[in-house]
Amino acid sequence: MEELEAIANEIKRCTLCDLCNKRNNAVPGEGYDKARIVLLGEAPGKNEDLQGRPFIGMSGRFLTKYLEKVGIKREAVFITNAVKCRPPNNRKPTLHEIETCRPYLLRQLNTINPSIILAFGTSAAASLGLKFKHLSEVRGRKINIKLDDKTFDCFVTFHPSFPMRFPHAREQFLKDIKTCLNIYKNLPTT
Ligand code: SF4
User: Where are the domains of the chain?
Assistant: First the structure.
């Protein structure tokens, strides 16, 4: 879709925050332009920065495997991040960086108009305007959010890097993805 490409081209040239200084490539996101589900991560990592594509490193492969377990193909969704440029040494993006980058995310969401946004981790949840102290306050349930006068359903779970590193969280991560999918399909969630 032309609008998504136009947004991506702006992101690739963007110098609105300091993250532009050390990036190799901005990572606007990729996927189906009419996706019903948008996956939202935190920020590009080393591999993503080198190739300009989201979720292609270790946690990306982990995520793809878990999406396949519930029958979601990457080609059927749109995948992006709260910030589009890699923070140095993979640190968490600051709130200022998230807020500076948010207009691009909002434009992507308005263009795609998904049925549900599956947000991974605290930075993704913060970029959707959710207020919380601990992820557990917003994790694992459908939340209706208003962005730019438009409402979206979102569902927050762990960032895939967490269950990848801590196997005890994998069952819950899978359950969350299944629950999100059932909400999207309007199926019972228990
Ligand atoms: S992180 Fe976002 S706001 Fe910052 S330079 Fe990259 S595209 Fe621009």
Answer: 2-184
pTM above 0.85, yes or no: yes
As averages over each run of 10 residues, the pLDDT of the chain (190 residues) reads 93 98 97 96 97 95 96 95 96 97 97 97 97 96 93 97 97 97 80
The secondary element (H helix, E strand) that includes residue 147 is strand 142-147
Span from the CA of 92 to the centroid of ligand 1 (angstroms) = 14
Contacts 24+ apart (CB under 8 A), 94-102: 95/126, 96/17, 97/17, 97/18, 97/19, 98/123, 98/126, 98/127, 100/16, 100/17, 101/16, 101/17, 101/127, 102/127
Residue nearest ligand 1's atom 6 by CA: 85
Ligand 1 atom 3, closest CA: 101
CATH tag, 2-184: 3.40.470.10
How far, in Å, from the CA of 101 to the mean position of ligand 1?
A: 5
Top mutation candidate among 7, 9, 10, 20 for ligand 1, by most atoms within 8 Å of CB: 20
38 lines ligand 1 (CB under 6 A): no
Q: State whether residue 72 is helix, strand or coil.
A: coil
